[in-house]
Design a protein that fits this description.
313 residues; alpha/beta; seven-stranded parallel β-sheet; 15 helices; 9 strands; 46% helix; globular
């Protein structure tokens, strides 16, 4: 579940992720429940730790918290400050983990750069010993931090080549903390669509294109040559909300081949081949965003053909 207040440029129903997960938890039995991703700016870590422990109880231990440094679409329109977002995220994670270990006879105090707690503890505990934390790391610093402290890595919209390049940064962070990369669930959040008709897939490419415009530097890491306009570079450095309001004018900078490279779209055989390529690049867990063109049909094909194919390997 994306944890958003807004999806700029997309009309629809943006519901609170945690409320939806609390409804899904008792109605499901096996699937993992993951936020893709939340941030450390809109909630206090004690509040989120309690909410997460509650949903982990409802789901009998199936919750994962996906978290990242934050996005302007969730913050700028509402005047929510996000200074030093990466450092704040690291401290936020630390506080939550301490709270899950605490109880009335084992309270703790904390005096950090962002949060101060005194004699703190939580009555409710997750079913899991600690809820896994997956970081939606899409930059060099956050990828390194992921390797150092996270249980999983969930970047969004990568190509097989850029994933290999970026995974090396996660591995370097793991090595710094004397961890093995096998301890970290290497995931990928990516758009997928299935159809035998190429024309039907054209309309689904807008999602990948929009994701790439928000960070064209990923295309460079995949080996493409792209001249990023100066105004976009300024928006990246300022993490400006304006980028979401002007996506249409920047589409010309995204090579058509890159849209195919940074998504999992095609007919059944093509999708299987693409997933295989990503697996060889290091992906172990796919968080698929189903954009159709017939979402129910795409879901059926995954259930009946694609997942059984990989289970049989």
């Amino acid at each position: 579940m994306a944890d958003h207040l807004l999806f700029p440029g997309v009309e629809g129903f943006t519901a609170d992720a945690w409320s939806v997960l609390s409804v899904l938890a008792p109605k499901t039995e096996k699937i993992k429940l993951l936020t893709g991703v939340t941030c450390p700016h809109r909630r206090h870590p004690a509040v989120l730790a309690q909410t997460a422990a509650t949903i982990d109880q409802f789901s009998n231990g199936r919750l994962i918290i996906g978290i990242g440094p934050g996005e302007s679409m969730n913050l700028d329109p509402f005047g929510i400050e996000w200074k030093r977002p990466v450092s704040k995220m690291v401290e936020f994670i630390d506080v939550m983990r301490r709270l899950w270990r605490s109880d009335a006879s084992n309270t703790f105090s904390f005096n950090g750069a962002f949060y101060t707690l005194k004699g703190a503890y939580l009555d409710i505990k997750p079913v899991q010993e600690t809820i896994p934390i997956y970081i939606g790391a899409n930059g060099p610093r956050t990828r390194k931090i992921t390797g150092e402290i996270a249980d999983g890595w969930t970047p969004i919209t990568e190509s097989p080549e850029s994933y290999k390049v970026h995974l090396k940064e996660v591995k370097r962070g793991a090595k710094k903390s004397n961890r093995n990369i096998e301890e970290i669930d290497t995931c990928l959040e990516i758009y997928t669509a299935i159809s035998e008709e190429k024309e039907e897939l054209e309309g689904t490419k807008i999602y990948t294109m929009g994701a790439l415009i928000t960070d064209l530097r990923k295309i460079l890491d995949a080996g493409y040559k792209v001249d990023i306009p100066e105004e976009l570079q300024e928006m990246y450095s300022k993490k400006s909300y304006d980028i979401f309001s002007n996506l249409d004018q920047y589409m010309k900078y995204v090579p058509e081949e890159a849209v195919d490279d940074f998504s999992i779209m095609g007919n059944v055989d093509g999708v299987i081949e693409k997933i295989d390529t990503f697996i060889r690049s290091g992906v172990r867990h796919f968080c698929l965003m189903n954009v159709g063109p017939n979402p129910k049909e795409t879901q059926r094909i995954y259930g009946e053909k694609i997942i059984p194919y990989f289970k049989g390997k």
